[in-house]
């Protein structure tokens, strides 16, 4: 049993707090929003973001960051990616040397193109950072449906520690040393999910969805491997696994936002309608920046950017993808010599 805090009380923070508490840990949950803490403390349920998931009386909810951070064995950072830097900055004075911070948010910082654990490390140099990611919608984790994720850390014993705190019969945790691969798979799949949603919004079918998932993981892998990720990670839970769930699930906010755009909504109108954070919109621009920096081709993500930021018609973006230069499926495969 450990003392853990979840920093961020949205749907994912709330679901993970429930898992950690069920496993016998002492759990505190911090939110910047006073009304959210009051609701969670009195109703023991996040009525807006995770209705139907009852939370134990033992979980402590607070807006006091100092008490949420000091003396905890593990901090789970679950605020949306655009708030990772500001939240880390605020946490820094209370974080002790080597204190463990597990990032569970998914994104890349738009201005700096930095993955989230790098931002945490920059703002809190004394912290030990790790990640937890995979195909895991809060709505299903909250009601105990079988789910698998992967914990990534620099050292095996740290990943195994995270595994031991989170794992139970409905939440299976694997370990991995490939933090950058896990992070990039998580952030970039949101952009492909927007594309999958757009295809749904246009009324396209299963063939199109399968094409986006398969070619999507190809371009995610191209960039991630250029940045130091291992190919196996992209074909694992935090790569293809998360891409499948987000492109297919009714719970996916990125897919839903894309679907609205496919039906004619503007990006801003779609984001307002979805209400929760649509991180693919932020990661789309960052992904293009990284593609340029590392000299890799990301055609689907390029077309998503055109739709999002240049008001390019979704249907035309699909035609652009279909009529790109003729290619071989796997660039590195060798042909029989003539
Ligand atoms: N939901 C899921 O199934 C999963 C989510 N994730 C990732 O977890 C992260 C959090 O997502 P999720 O919980 O779903 O998001 P939600 O939209 O459900 O909640 C986000 C929370 O952050 C709060 N918030 C608003 N402003 C700030 C701020 N300035 N600083 C800190 N917090 C703020 C929000 O408050 P308010 O309600 O007032 O806006 C809300 O409580 C994301 O990166 C997401 O990709 C990962 C796996 C699964
Ligand atoms: O990453 C997530 C679930 O794994 C949340 O993003 P989506 O809601 O778009 O799928």
UniProtKB/TrEMBL annotation:
<dbReference type="GO" id="GO:0047952">
    <property type="term" value="F:glycerol-3-phosphate dehydrogenase [NAD(P)+] activity"/>
</dbReference>
<feature type="binding site">
    <location>
        <position position="242"/>
    </location>
    <ligand>
        <name>sn-glycerol 3-phosphate</name>
    </ligand>
</feature>
<keyword id="KW-0520">NAD</keyword>
<keyword id="KW-0963">Cytoplasm</keyword>
<dbReference type="InterPro" id="IPR006109">
    <property type="entry name" value="G3P_DH_NAD-dep_C"/>
</dbReference>
<dbReference type="Pfam" id="PF01210">
    <property type="entry name" value="NAD_Gly3P_dh_N"/>
</dbReference>
<feature type="binding site">
    <location>
        <position position="277"/>
    </location>
    <ligand>
        <name>NADPH</name>
    </ligand>
</feature>
<feature type="domain" description="Glycerol-3-phosphate dehydrogenase NAD-dependent N-terminal">
    <location>
        <begin position="3"/>
        <end position="158"/>
    </location>
</feature>
<protein>
    <recommendedName>
        <fullName>Glycerol-3-phosphate dehydrogenase [NAD(P)+]</fullName>
        <ecNumber>1.1.1.94</ecNumber>
    </recommendedName>
</protein>
<keyword id="KW-0443">Lipid metabolism</keyword>
<feature type="binding site">
    <location>
        <position position="279"/>
    </location>
    <ligand>
        <name>NADPH</name>
    </ligand>
</feature>
<feature type="domain" description="Glycerol-3-phosphate dehydrogenase NAD-dependent C-terminal">
    <location>
        <begin position="178"/>
        <end position="318"/>
    </location>
</feature>
<comment type="pathway">
    <text>Membrane lipid metabolism; glycerophospholipid metabolism.</text>
</comment>
<keyword id="KW-0594">Phospholipid biosynthesis</keyword>
<comment type="similarity">
    <text>Belongs to the NAD-dependent glycerol-3-phosphate dehydrogenase family.</text>
</comment>
<feature type="binding site">
    <location>
        <position position="138"/>
    </location>
    <ligand>
        <name>NADPH</name>
    </ligand>
</feature>
<dbReference type="InterPro" id="IPR036291">
    <property type="entry name" value="NAD(P)-bd_dom_sf"/>
</dbReference>
<keyword id="KW-0560">Oxidoreductase</keyword>
<feature type="binding site">
    <location>
        <position position="11"/>
    </location>
    <ligand>
        <name>NADPH</name>
    </ligand>
</feature>
<feature type="binding site">
    <location>
        <position position="253"/>
    </location>
    <ligand>
        <name>sn-glycerol 3-phosphate</name>
    </ligand>
</feature>
<feature type="binding site">
    <location>
        <position position="252"/>
    </location>
    <ligand>
        <name>sn-glycerol 3-phosphate</name>
    </ligand>
</feature>
<feature type="binding site">
    <location>
        <position position="12"/>
    </location>
    <ligand>
        <name>NADPH</name>
    </ligand>
</feature>
<feature type="binding site">
    <location>
        <position position="253"/>
    </location>
    <ligand>
        <name>NADPH</name>
    </ligand>
</feature>
<keyword id="KW-0521">NADP</keyword>
<feature type="active site" description="Proton acceptor">
    <location>
        <position position="189"/>
    </location>
</feature>
<feature type="binding site">
    <location>
        <position position="136"/>
    </location>
    <ligand>
        <name>sn-glycerol 3-phosphate</name>
    </ligand>
</feature>
<comment type="function">
    <text>Catalyzes the reduction of the glycolytic intermediate dihydroxyacetone phosphate (DHAP) to sn-glycerol 3-phosphate (G3P), the key precursor for phospholipid synthesis.</text>
</comment>
<feature type="binding site">
    <location>
        <position position="254"/>
    </location>
    <ligand>
        <name>sn-glycerol 3-phosphate</name>
    </ligand>
</feature>
<dbReference type="Pfam" id="PF07479">
    <property type="entry name" value="NAD_Gly3P_dh_C"/>
</dbReference>
<dbReference type="InterPro" id="IPR011128">
    <property type="entry name" value="G3P_DH_NAD-dep_N"/>
</dbReference>
<keyword id="KW-1208">Phospholipid metabolism</keyword>
<dbReference type="InterPro" id="IPR008927">
    <property type="entry name" value="6-PGluconate_DH-like_C_sf"/>
</dbReference>
<keyword id="KW-0547">Nucleotide-binding</keyword>
<feature type="binding site">
    <location>
        <position position="189"/>
    </location>
    <ligand>
        <name>sn-glycerol 3-phosphate</name>
    </ligand>
</feature>
<dbReference type="InterPro" id="IPR006168">
    <property type="entry name" value="G3P_DH_NAD-dep"/>
</dbReference>
<feature type="binding site">
    <location>
        <position position="106"/>
    </location>
    <ligand>
        <name>NADPH</name>
    </ligand>
</feature>
<feature type="binding site">
    <location>
        <position position="106"/>
    </location>
    <ligand>
        <name>sn-glycerol 3-phosphate</name>
    </ligand>
</feature>
<keyword id="KW-0444">Lipid biosynthesis</keyword>
<feature type="binding site">
    <location>
        <position position="134"/>
    </location>
    <ligand>
        <name>sn-glycerol 3-phosphate</name>
    </ligand>
</feature>
<dbReference type="InterPro" id="IPR013328">
    <property type="entry name" value="6PGD_dom2"/>
</dbReference>
